[in-house]
Specification:
single chain, alpha/beta, 6-stranded parallel beta sheet, 12 strands
Length: 339
Amino acid sequence: MAVTIKDVAKEAGVSAATVSKILNNKPYISEQTRRHVKEVMERLDYHPNAQASNFKHKRSNNIIFLAVTELHTAFHNPHMFEILCGAESVIRKKNYNLSFVGVSSQEEAYTTIREIVGRNTADGLLIHGSATSRQLVEFFVKNNFPHIIIGRPPFASTSCWIDINNRVSGQMAMEYLEECGYSKIAFIGGPKSDEISRHRLQGFVSYMNINGLSIEDEFIKYGKYTKESGFSMMEELLRYPSLPDAIICENNQIAMGAVKAITKNNLSIPEDIGLITFDDYPLSQIIDPPLTVIDIDVYEMGNQAADILLRKIKNPALQVQSFTTLPRLIVRSSTMKKV
């Protein structure tokens, strides 16, 4: 049986009116009582937005975009701002307000969302993949609260999400390099555990296998998303007797390190080694030479996420799990036609 506000009040030793005031963030409640009641709600797994009819039918005309933020987030994850801008351009036309909430961890994201839903301060939520956890997704599903997760959760669920098909991105990078005439191609990526890096690598490997191209095990490297890691992985590749003639770099910072290692060893880009990366960050255009990239229009991705969320607010039964926004190739001088 579902836990009610009366159950919470009884367990906490307060009145139902006091619990209601705490849920609505009313004044004149001591901080000690407020903390105690919230601990009881947590222990009983009480979700007021799903169960209290006086919350259920209210509208705030507010949509919240929530993400994990930290020092240098704009540098490490510049796509987040583009997605946010894309979402805002759709939401403002529908007379909704878009609020941004940054949290420090997935654990804080979960507690923050419980509070947002409990207080009915948003009609819907856009959740950046950085904030996604199994606990959070289960909360959305249980409460049937309008949401779109930007980035497919790395586990099975009935939550609503949209994502980029990173396998296609990996395939496109490989297809273009083969068309240019490169034949000994290496992939240097992020950690094995990283979902995006793994999917791009799968696209690369899939294309190689389908087209009967050989894959040398030592030409696949895993590291960190840093310039230093890119430099180290590239240095390893350049110590092999048989050198690659092209490199697929999983992100711009890895590519920056790879370029440094190549030039340090007196090799030329693209004459000796071609180089392609993903995502048209500012770095890809200022590195010398400017980098060929497989890019995603993440502004459009924000548009689509907001549009789907607005439709889900009107129709809570709407279920969306979809890959959106096809990647596009931007050719610059880090690659060349060899044939």
